[in-house]
Amino acid sequence: MERKVTMTPPFQPQAAGFRHFAPSSAGTGRRDTEGAGAFLGTTNALGSLAVDEFTKNAYRDNVAEYIFTGLRKNAGISYKSFEERFGKQLWDIYGSTRDAYLEFVRTGCAEEDDAGIRLTLKGMNISNRIMELFV
Questions:
Q1: Is 122 or 26 the better-scoring residue by pLDDT?
Q2: Which residues contact 91 (CB under 8 A, 6 or more apart)?
Q3: What is the pTM of this model?
């Protein structure tokens, strides 16, 4: 999909050192912007913020993003927080991958207890392989 945004001159995101594409996730959707105008409150020639697309994420996409973010944290994912946020227990959604996750626990790459799941230092080195279970 081609994105076109007209920025009000003289704003030049490249000259200011900003990337051309900056996704952000807030609530239950993802917003994509061209340049940094939306973050700085810059408007285009029509007076609108420079946001050209807003997509509502599917439930499963929100869960996966939560898992990926949570597993990157030392504390990991709290079962209680997960259930409060998504209305279901983690393994009710990902039950088919639990045995594979427990194999990572057995090899010392991940941990699970009554509070939740997390990666170990060893697991952080192969985090992509573990996170594949939650795609």
A1: 122
A2: 98
A3: 0.62
